[in-house]
Amino acid sequence: MNTAAQRSAPFAHAPTSIQNTMSTVLLALIPATLFDAWLFGWPAIVMFLTTVGSCLAAEAACLHLGKRPLQPTLFDGSAALTGWLLAMSLPPWSPWWISVIGAIFSICLAKHVFGGLGQNPFNPAMVGRIALLVSFPLQMTSFIAPRPLMSAGAPGLGESLAIIFGGHANLDGISAASALGYVKTELSRGIPVSESASHVPNLMDMAMGMHPGSFGETSALLILAGGLFLLARRVISWHIPVAVIATLFFMGSVFSAVDPGRFTSGSFQVFSGATFLGAFFIATDYVTSPVSKPGQLVFGFGVGLLTWVIRSFAGYPEGMAFAVLLMNALTPLIDHHIRPRAFGRTRKGDPLPVKGE
Amino acid sequence: MRIFPVRGGVHLEYRKELTSEKAIVALPLPKILLIPVQQHMGAPAITMVKVGDSVGKGQVVARGQGLVSAPVHAPTSGKVVEIEYITAPHPSGLPQITIVLEPDGLDQWAQLPDPIADPFAATPAAIRERVAASGIVGMGGATFPSAVKLGLGARNKLDTLLLNGAECEPYLTCDDRLMREHAEEVLDGARIMAHALGTAQIIVAIEGNKPEALASMTKAAAGFANISVATVPVQYPMGAERHLTLAVTGRETPARKLTADVGVVVHNVATAKAVHHAVRFGRPLVSRVVTVSGHAVAEAKNVEVPLGTKVADLLAFCGGLSSPPARVISGGPMMGQPLPSLEVPVVKGTSGILALTAWESNEAPAQPCIRCGNCVNVCPCGLVPVEMAAFVRNEKLENAAQIGLMDCVSCGGCSYICPSHIPLVHYFNYAKGRLNAMDRDRRKRDLVKTLVEARGARLEKQAQARKEAAAAAAAAAAAAQAANPDANRPNP
Fold first, then answer.
1. Do B384 and A356 touch (CB under 8 A)?
2. CB distance B419–A353 less than 8 Å?
């Protein structure tokens, strides 16, 4: 009987743990990851494993430097999840050093500098991606057209290792623009969106994922399925994803109706780029999003709005990562100002008036 | 009956099936009873017997003192063998004045007060007096003297007596069994209490996971137009006074106020049964039903236990421990208290004795907070536990208080759900204790300051008075001199 370490009740606990939560998220990512591994072939698989491995190694190194035990932190799934999400946001055939540098940015700078799990103000995977994007814009926008495993001309394992570790890929020959990137480039050449949009893959292909893009973002439907799984398991709530997607759809629809030559449609906004990955897996990151439901709605709205603004007006074709980081910065402010109403109190925090007094 | 939504709440592992079908059995008289003089909130009772005295069952052995207190009665007839400081059934393990009674085995009632023949013709004051004299306290675990609560009608305009049969804590089935087996007695007690309070209607609130209790209470209430039975959702902590009031009446009790301020008084079903016995038979509170449960107990049971029975004796009656428990708890697992040893007595507020195995209590070392926000979602008080805990951890107690720490009811929902196993409620209880102590100190300092200032003013006033008197005397002397200049002059 434990009388030595006395503490307050409760002496019961739900079967929840960090490991459970993280592994559920990883589970939800598996379908899309498998599909993308097939779609982009062995090089993408090598790239994926390199990225996740680098993140785990970076986590272990940081824990070691901080003289903290490797257990249970290394295996709680959080570093693996960061690596997984980072890999999904990279071009499928990125060379090995992109993965390693990304891992160092994500795990060491974005996470451990602030104190490790739970302490980081910004989403580690997105910090990694943005740092890479602004440092190595060429590599980070060298997308390839899908080359499914077993298909003619798809590289084998040996060739893939050479591509990722030897820098032997002749990306010039095979690279392709993502849909968002193509539309943006054409617009800058003076070709209206209404025309260029007809040359990008149709919505069905975009939803299925049969188009160029980052490793994990192309298959909107499988990502959506993973997101719905997380909703069903109550790992995430609907507030952030719905707010993000609804805002994007709304802004796209309204502005493309006003000026179809300048703006892409709402459904294009929703099905292109990293909308679903961002809405269900990135913006919902516990650590860097608000804790209250109303706060999460505001956060999701902000992410959707900023994504649309960046996609439509800024230099980069995709704005999800930037939008998430910007809203991460606002999270403490949102949490401070948007709180639940306390029992027996008004929204301002004063006790409710007593009737008859 | 319309049920109003209550924010937050948790769905727990209830494990009530361990005892829910176990009818209440009486515990044979133990060899020794330990009767603490404080089994209630408020001032401890004053011992009325001395070592060697023989007492009858139901005889007052300690009387209440002050406004908020309750007397303590002998649970059976026997001899007082010792009065000493003995470990209290409280996690502090601090000793408390305890009357040790050796039962004589006769279990003979002392001279009891006469039954109140027609309680509904008696004055509310007479009912309150009887309830106070019978040592009845809130038996849901809060142990607040019931008579004080029955007097709230004098201060507030009340319309509803809410009889709390929610029993939202896991494992506990003592109220469930009481409602199934003694529905008439419970309802009679409730009607007497409603009469004392002056409330027109009685609502019995029972969680939906107790269909048999709902059926038996509904049947017992059938003859009374002013009694209704409400099925409340299985949502912890539905049995919390304010939350139950909100769910059943839609009235939200303002912060820092009582439910009586919205016209509702809440009493537990076991309290109602005790009132029935006190009023109808003159019998004081000398026993209660205790749920003995948990997977470390050989035979989980519902037991009618004389107050003062040692937990060890009660467990022995239930076949002892089948495996070494990780925790032994008095009350439910969500808000109960860990027991310092098995040598402590069952008291008026002991609703359960739970011996929990390690897998049941599922304790684990705390990990870093990942800000999942589950604690915010489940908090029935609309607080942000994650933020309060961060403040408390940094000893910023005032900041924690500013965001509502003192509104926390310590229901344990946040700790229960936390994936990082952070003992949030432990932080909050620590902070509340510290803040209360600081508040007491501040009030004490203020009082001292006021007294010192008053003394200074008094002394100054006295000095002033003396000075004035001296001046007046001097002036009088001078005047006298002026009138008779030669008076003091030596004769030539």
1. no
2. no
Report the first-to-last Cα separation within chain A, whole angstroms: 52
Contacts (Cβ under 8 Å, ≥6 apart) of B462: none
Residue B164's closest CA among B184, B145, B178, B147?
A: B178
B63, with CB counted inside 10 A (0-12, 13-18, 19+), is: middle
Q: What crossing angle do the helices spanning B174-181 and B269-281 adopt, rounded to 10°?
A: 50
Q: What pLDDT is recorded for position B478?
A: 87
Which positions of chain A have pLDDT values less than 50?
Answer: 2-4, 173
Beta bridge partners of B162: B203, B266
Distance CA A248, CA A239 (A): 14
User: What chain A residue is nearest to B10 in terms of C-alpha separation?
Assistant: A14
The secondary structure element, H or E, covering residue B162 is strand B160-165
CA-to-CA distance for B484 and B208, rounded, in angstroms? 103
Tokens standing for residue B381: 């008080």
Structure tokens that stand for A143 in this block = 């997308």
**Contact B256/A351, CB-based, under 8 Å?**
yes
DSSP A207-267: HHT-S---TTTS-HHHHHHHHHHHHHTTSS-SHHHHHHHHHHHHHHHHHHHH-TTTS--HH
User: How far is Cα B175 from Cα B167, in angstroms, rounded to an integer?
Assistant: 7
Q: Do A18 and B420 touch (CB under 8 A)?
A: yes
Distances (CA, A) of B429 to A8, B207, B240: 7, 27, 17
Count CB atoms within 10 A of the CB of residue A347: 9
DSSP string, B300-337: -EEEEEETTBBHHHHHHHTT-BSS--SEEEES-TTT-E
Partners of B255 on chain A (C-beta within 8 Å) are: 342-345, 351-352
SS (H, E, C) A77-120: CHHHHHHHHHHHCCCCCCCHHHHHHHHHHHHHHCCHHHCCCCCC
Q: Look at B417 and A14 and tell me if their CB atoms are within 8 Å.
A: yes
What pLDDT, on a 0 to 100 scale, did the predictor assign at position A33?
Answer: 93
Distance CA B205, CA B214 (A): 9
Structure tokens at B397: 């107690």
The residues in B 387-406 lying below 8 A from A, measured between CB atoms, are 387, 403-404
> For residue A290, which of A227, A337, A332 has the smallest C-alpha distance?
A332
H helices within B46-182, ranges in order? 124-133, 146-150, 174-181
Q: Considering CB atoms only, which of B360, B383, B425 is closest to A8? A: B425
- Going by DSSP bridges, is the β-strand pair B301-306/B24-26 parallel, antiparallel, or unpaired? parallel
Report the alpha-carbon distance of residue B339 to residue B347 in Å, rounded. 13
Q: What is the pLDDT of residue A356?
A: 60
Measured CA to CA, the distance from residue B87 to residue B98 in angstroms comes to: 9
Could you say which residues from 144 to 173 on chain B have a Cβ atom under 8 Å away from some Cβ of chain A? 157, 170
Of B282, B276, B306, B285, nearest to B112 (Cα)? Answer: B282
Domains and CATH numbers, chain B: 16-288 (3.40.50.11540), 366-481 (1.10.1060)
Residue with tokens 């990851």, as numbered in its chain: A33
Q: What domains can be seen in chain A, in order of their start residue?
A: 19-337 (1.10.3430)
Assess contact for A90 and A132: CB atoms under 8 A: yes
Q: What is the rounded CA–CA span in Å between residue B254 and residue B239?
A: 18
CA distance A86 to A78: 12
Q: Which two tokens stand for residue A239?
A: 């507030």
Q: For residues A134 and A138, what is the distance between their CA atoms, to the nearest angstrom?
A: 9
Q: Between A320-337 and A124-135, two packed helices, what is the crossing angle to 10 degrees?
A: 140
Q: Considering the entire predicted model, what is its pTM? A: 0.88
Q: Which residues of chain B have pLDDT under 50?
A: 492
Assembly ipTM: 0.87
Q: State the pLDDT at residue B492.
A: 45
Which residues are B25's β-sheet partners? B303
